[in-house]
Write a structure and sequence with these properties.
It is built from eleven helices and 29 strands. It is of the alpha+beta class. Its cofactor is L-ascorbate.
Length: 619
């Protein structure tokens, strides 16, 4: 697409648009009226290219500039060829008679538009215009795919074929198309014809062009083109052509355009860049008393842990409110907002954009919090919450003896009260069990996060029962260790053990989310190659909603349907177990997050940022 991606072979079934992108978690399309399927009459205002652009002298000049890669502006037409960061041509006043464009705009606005929304974009799109035969659309197709295509062959030297794509797009307030390169088999040149009102940079909706880093990944925006009425923009689709449509910021203007691709022989492209795998570490040594100071005591009660595990075993996800003790949570939040933490932008833009803290710059209270989340006690607690093998003395789940599960956990719990054996043979106290009478009066809620389907609740791994079989087969383990159980006697306690032990491990990150942040699905995601437990605790989430973005969306690989959506909530631990066929992304945080107001009319989030302790645990 001219302003749409398809680096991971995502595309629309109708051939796609140039400023749109393929459907992954797209909203369902509305019924189409198909009003404009018959051309009647003759145009009183013909569709013709500006006569200055068809003059031989102009074409000769553009051919030399376009093919030789020399940046230039043509005096008299203001046509420009940009070569940095990649070759892009701008033809102002492209159509000779503006009365034709006005008629075309009116006809286009009569079409039904489909709401399109997934990890990459949010906007509205028409059906493929090549399937319409109305008066102005038919004339536009002739102008583009006969008159201009002949012109383009002369200027670029590309041997185009007669395959083409054409759609109309509407970008309204908060609509966006994030960074992509348009590369897909057969696409050679992307184009956009703008039909916008008077437009300024402050309105957003710019065509941003990215340069590249040493790995061939998008680095930063080096050129931005403001949409203008009757401007025609085109560029060759190459591994360098990373671009985006920036978010529309004006609530009163619609960014209307017609866009598509010209097709030709496929050009070889380099192998995709594979990012290095994140470093994983075993648990860290943390004082026992420190762990108990941080975790809400209700979650240390065995009865509550059993309830959490029952729910998690059915759903593969849960959200635990008031997870940290209140004073600890508030201390971390204060430091996140006010300390001199060094925040580094995480990219590249075709995969993610958010801020990550340099761990060495974190103040002591946040470092302490991270050590608790990576402690042996936390690994054991998460094992009790999820029945995953995140600790050597956690019980092993087995569908054939589910009735024994609770007894196993009780045996392990009794043992952890007496103390766990560390590697040196010394006792280390584990996650303690409290009686019901000792529970906090304000018992935290352990609840399921919302699903879109409402009635039927489906875990992120489709069915937990299916996943249990996979776990027993050893699919969780990088080394392929056996999950076949055997019994082992330790200090008089019978515990199900794996025949070959693996080392549970994790990674941790402190993330800052602001307007414009997001993560995207991509084919080269190394993290998604293993089964994993995602764990997030959020801070300062006032003003975050489904409308603002910032929520985490889980989908099945190759499917459009969303399995699960996790909306960040204050001091809530979100746990989601995902398999190798489950993908996730954080929805782009749009401008409405900055402007959201409470019932009193004041901004809901004066800092315009929320924070996340993000950890991933592996068995």
């Amino acid at each position: 697409m001219s302003e749409a991606n398809i680096t991971d072979k995502r595309d629309l079934s109708d051939g796609g648009p140039s400023e749109e992108a393929p459907s992954r978690v797209s909203s369902p399309p509305r019924k189409k009226k198909q009003k404009t399927n018959g051309a009647v009459g003759v145009l009183s205002h013909p569709a013709e290219i500006n006569e200055k652009y068809v003059e031989k002298s102009f074409k000769d000049c553009m051919r030399a500039v376009f093919q030789d890669g020399v940046e230039a502006t043509h005096i008299g037409t203001e046509a420009a060829v940009i070569t940095n960061p990649f070759t892009c041509c701008v033809l102002p006043n492209f159509v000779k008679d503006e009365r034709f464009l006005k008629g075309l705009k009116e006809e286009l606005l009569e079409l039904d538009f489909n709401n399109k929304s997934n990890d990459l974009y949010k906007f509205q799109q028409s059906d493929a215009l090549q399937n319409f035969t109305s008066l102005y659309i038919t004339a536009l197709k002739k102008l583009l795919y006969e008159d201009f295509l002949s012109w383009l062959r002369e200027v670029t030297g590309i041997p185009f074929i007669n395959t083409f794509d054409l759609t109309c797009s509407k970008y309204n307030y908060t609509d966006v198309l994030l960074c992509h390169d348009d590369e897909l088999e057969g696409r050679r040149v992307a184009f956009i014809l703008y039909l916008v009102p008077t437009w300024a940079k402050k309105d957003g909706g710019l065509l941003d062009l990215f340069d590249m880093d040493e790995h061939g990944q998008p680095k930063s925006v080096v050129k931005s083109l403001v949409p203008n009425w009757n401007n025609f923009v085109f560029f060759e689709v190459t591994p360098k052509s990373f671009h985006q449509v920036s978010e529309v910021l004006n609530q009163d203007k619609c960014r209307l355009s017609v866009s598509g691709w010209f097709h030709g022989p496929t050009v070889p492209r380099p192998a995709p860049y594979i990012e290095p795998r994140c470093t994983l570490t075993p648990h860290v040594d943390t004082q026992e008393t420190l762990f108990y100071e941080w975790i809400n005591e209700s979650y240390l009660d065995f009865g509550n842990q059993s309830e959490v595990q029952d729910t998690f075993s059915d759903e593969s996800e849960i959200q635990l409110s008031r997870f940290f003790e209140k004073e600890k949570y508030e201390a971390v939040l204060t430091q996140l907002q006010n300390s001199d933490i060094r925040w580094k932008s995480r990219g590249p833009a075709n995969k993610r954009h958010y801020k990550s803290a340099e761990l060495t710059s974190l103040p002591p209270v946040i470092q302490e919090c991270l050590s608790v989340m990576q402690s042996e006690h936390m690994f054991l607690l998460l094992s009790n919450f999820t029945a995953l093998r995140l600790h050597a003395q956690a019980p092993c789940s087995d569908d054939d003896d589910d009735d024994d599960d609770e007894d196993e956990i009780e045996e392990v719990q009794e043992k952890t009260e007496e103390g766990l054996d560390d590697e040196d043979g010394e006792k280390v106290n584990g996650t303690r069990c409290k009686s019901a009478s000792e529970e906090s009066e304000s018992k935290p809620e352990a609840r399921i996060v919302d699903h879109d389907d409402g009635d039927e609740r489906e875990g992120v791994t489709k069915e937990r029962g299916e996943q249990s079989d996979k776990v027993q087969d050893g699919d969780v383990h990088e080394q392929g260790t056996s999950r076949k159980d055997e019994t082992d006697l330790q200090d008089g306690v019978v515990i199900k053990m794996k025949r070959e032990a693996s080392t549970p491990r994790c990674r941790a990150e402190v993330r800052k989310w602001t307007h414009g942040c997001y993560t995207l699905l991509h084919d080269t995601d190394t993290e998604g190659s293993e089964f994993a437990l995602d764990a997030s605790v959020f801070f300062n989430t006032h003003g975050v909603s489904q409308a603002t973005g910032g929520f985490v969306s889980y989908i099945a690989k190759g499917e459009d349907e969303e399995l699960l959506s996790v909306l960040p909530e204050e001091n809530s631990l979100s746990l989601v177990y995902r398999d190798k066929e489950t993908l996730k992304f954080v929805k782009h945080i749009n401008h409405s997050y900055r402007t959201s107001r409470g019932s009193n009319g004041n901004p809901q989030n004066s800092h315009c940022a929320f924070y996340e302790l993000y950890l991933v645990y592996y068995e």
